[in-house]
């Protein structure tokens, strides 16, 4: 087939905020009332007048890059370099707002396809320039912050020109996509053929196919459609020493699955230039609803029962008592009545017959387990605002409220221990006025993911308050024997804790792979590997 591309390119995110400024609505009344009671309101304007550091690359090096991708695609513009500085975690935004641009790349290079990526990497290796692949810029664990020590500069490899649907195999239900396609663009191209991926993380509107693969992303519909890495059947990867192609069959026994070396590698082992994925027909019906549980533990037990009975719906999420009380599923109703207990969101997608059968079975099971149906209202409210939480985070930062998230995963038998340890660590570190909210965002027969949202007074040094709190939470996760990350990746933030999870031998394996595919150490140096 001829390569198909999006008809309209989405706008860039501003460097100090999330998303499209036109979609910001400010603080809902319920949130404003809550903030007024719990936090001191203060003005925290973002600085936009700070110059980006001068590029460290010489004229000859820039000429070499222009010879590969063309003059128009080697960009030194301060505005674009600022947009390519770090990701969208709260610490990233706080540094940007304070005018700290010390991690800005020296140049932004925009290749048109796989062959140009290969050539750029070979040239960067020769010139000893660090290369940081850039997709949507949604990283929240420091994955876009390279350590250029011993190298001559940092090149942001912007994959935004590589936004094509390269192949569609309707017989095998696979599609090959380029890495720069954002979530909505990929779904729109597939929808034109009656197909979909079904991968909808909170970053969906801006994150890219390459980013999903490089971070082993998990979406809000993972209960029904699976994690992104489970959708991947093939990869094409550019490395400084050559090309890697993986995925000649749906499954094989040809030794360890080398796709796993690059899924989750965060650009440290290579640049993913093509991803072949399992696709499925568009659902004819989507139905979302709410369920109420007496406690977080009761709701979690119900989720476990569904998962272990092979009864999972397409979407299932459970908020703890605190998150339910302020009703993050529908921020406009914060402070409303009737918020006792814990709210579960359940969603079913598929053909009318399949949805009706699964919904009936799930309803029977949840009722028997003690759940109370709440109708479609809570579910539809969640579906309507499922990608809006980062906008609320930014609005809270504007008025002096420190807000950040973190996530982990563990086995069912360890869930309560992990939950209690992380919550206590955050509350103790941040002190009076701290709110710790949690929901179970992804479930498996053997365990689940816990996703924490933290709000506290920002004070005069919000970054200085958050970093020790995040460290305390990570130490609590390690002490509980849980995963340091479930779907946000390692980056630089979680790197100090990776050895505790995979062991010294595991770290040596990663280092050996790095030496094999990136002998000069130019690929996203300082990320992932302790």
Automatic annotation (TrEMBL):
Asked if the keyword Flavoprotein belongs to this entry, the reply reads: yes
Please give the Gene3D superfamilies that the UniProt record associates with this protein.
3.30.300.330, 3.30.465.10, 3.30.70.3450, Vanillyl-alcohol Oxidase, Chain A, domain 4
Annotated segments matching region Disordered: 1-25
Annotated TM spans: none
Q: Does the keyword Nuclease apply?
A: no
Identify the residues that the record assigns to the FAD-binding PCMH-type domain, covering every copy.
101-282
Q: State the UniProt keywords alphabetically.
A: FAD, Flavoprotein
The RRM domain is annotated at 242-331
Q: Which domain of life is it from?
A: Bacteria
Q: Which family does it belong to?
A: Belongs to the FAD-binding oxidoreductase/transferase type 4 family.
Q: Supply the name of the protein.
A: FAD-binding oxidoreductase
């Amino acid at each position: 087939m001829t390569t198909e591309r999006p008809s309209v390119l989405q706008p860039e995110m501003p460097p100090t905020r999330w998303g499209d400024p036109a979609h910001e609505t400010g603080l809902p009344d319920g949130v404003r009332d809550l903030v007024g009671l719990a936090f001191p309101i203060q003005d925290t304007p973002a600085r936009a007048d700070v110059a980006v550091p001068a590029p460290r690359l010489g004229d000859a090096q820039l000429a070499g890059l222009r010879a590969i991708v063309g003059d128009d695609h080697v960009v030194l513009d301060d505005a674009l370099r600022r947009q390519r500085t770090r990701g969208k975690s709260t610490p990233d935004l706080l540094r940007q707002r304070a005018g700290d641009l010390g991690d800005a790349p020296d140049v932004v290079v925009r290749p048109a396809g796989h062959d140009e990526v290969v050539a750029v990497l070979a040239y960067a290796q020769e010139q000893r320039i660090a290369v940081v692949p850039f997709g949507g810029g949604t990283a929240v664990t420091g994955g876009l912050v390279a350590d250029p020590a011993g190298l001559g500069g940092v090149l942001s490899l912007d994959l935004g020109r590589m936004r094509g649907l390269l192949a569609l195999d309707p017989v095998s239900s696979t599609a090959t996509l380029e890495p720069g396609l954002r979530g909505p663009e990929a779904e729109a191209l597939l929808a034109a053929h009656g197909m979909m991926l079904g991968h909808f993380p909170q970053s969906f509107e801006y994150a890219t196919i390459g980013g999903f693969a490089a971070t082993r992303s998990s979406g809000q519909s993972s209960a029904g459609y699976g994690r992104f890495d489970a959708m991947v059947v093939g990869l094409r990867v550019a490395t400084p020493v050559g090309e890697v192609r993986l995925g000649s069959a749906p499954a094989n026994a040809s030794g360890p699955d080398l796709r796993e070396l690059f899924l989750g590698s965060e650009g440290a082992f290579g640049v993913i230039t093509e991803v072949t994925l399992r696709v499925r027909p568009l659902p004819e019906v989507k139905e979302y609803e709410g369920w109420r549980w007496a406690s977080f533990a009761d709701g979690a037990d119900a989720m476990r029962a569904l998962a272990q009975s092979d009864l999972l719906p397409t979407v299932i999420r459970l908020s703890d008592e605190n998150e339910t009380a302020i009703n993050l599923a529908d921020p406009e109703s914060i402070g409303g009545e009737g918020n006792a207990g814990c709210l579960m969101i359940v969603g079913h997608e598929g053909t009318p017959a399949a949805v009706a059968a699964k919904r009936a079975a799930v309803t029977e099971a949840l009722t028997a387990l003690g759940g109370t149906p709440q109708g479609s209202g809570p579910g539809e409210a969640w579906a309507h605002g499922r990608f809006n939480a980062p906008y609320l985070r930014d609005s809270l930062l504007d008025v002096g409220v420190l807000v950040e998230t973190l996530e982990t995963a563990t086995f069912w038998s360890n869930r309560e221990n992990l939950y209690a340890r992380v919550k206590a660590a955050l509350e103790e570190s941040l002190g009076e006025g701290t709110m710790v909210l949690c929901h179970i965002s992804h479930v498996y027969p053997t365990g689940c993911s816990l996703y924490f949202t933290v709000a506290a007074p920002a004070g005069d040094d919000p970054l200085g308050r958050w970093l020790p709190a995040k460290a305390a939470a990570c130490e609590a996760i390690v002490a509980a024997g849980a995963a340091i990350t479930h779907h946000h990746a390692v980056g630089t933030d979680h790197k100090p804790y990776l050895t505790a999870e995979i062991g010294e031998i595991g770290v040596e394996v990663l280092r050996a792979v790095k030496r094999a595919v990136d002998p000069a150490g130019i690929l996203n140096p300082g990320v992932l590997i302790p």
